[in-house]
Amino acid sequence: MIANPFRAWRQRREYRAYEARQAQYTVFAADLTGWTNTQLIRSAMTLSDPHEAELCMAEWGARLQDRVVSVRHAAADS
Q1: What string of DSSP letters covers 34-70?
Q2: pTM for this structure?
Q3: Mapping DSSP to helix (H, G, I), strand (E, B) and coil, where does residue 77 land?
Q4: Measured between alpha carbons, how far is 52 from 46 in angstroms, rounded to an integer?
Q5: CA 45/CA 51 separation, integer angstroms
Q6: Which residue has the higher pLDDT, 73 or 59?
């Protein structure tokens, strides 16, 4: 079978675009640590990129989980 050079080129281009998006998401997720919970929730509801909205909700959920754990530890210590 003859390989299609256009297909290979397109796959490389799409993969480079995918890697660039992943790097962008990593920077975006790291930036969320300075956001308030209200900013996270509003952004999750209004962002057009579903992956960025998901990252906002994941950060908010992690903060809630940390708060629950710290309250449970405080209750157990008293």
Answers
A1: GS-HHHHHHHHHH-S-HHHHHHHHHHHHHHHHHHHHH
A2: 0.58
A3: helix
A4: 10
A5: 12
A6: 59
Cα–Cα distance, 60 to 9 (Å, whole number): 39
pLDDT exceeds cutoff 70 at 1: no
User: How far, in Å, CA of 43 to CA of 52, rounded?
Assistant: 9
Q: For residue 2, what pLDDT is reported?
A: 63
User: What does the alpha-carbon distance between residue 42 and residue 56 come to, in Å, rounded to a whole number?
Assistant: 9
Two tokens, residue 58? 């994941």
**Separation of alpha carbons 41 and 61, rounded Å:** 10
Name the burial class of residue 40, with classes exposed (0-12), middle (13-18) and buried (19+) by CB atoms within 10 angstroms of its CB: buried
Q: Residue type at 21? A: R
28-46 pLDDT, tens digit per residue, is 888 888 888 888 888 888 8
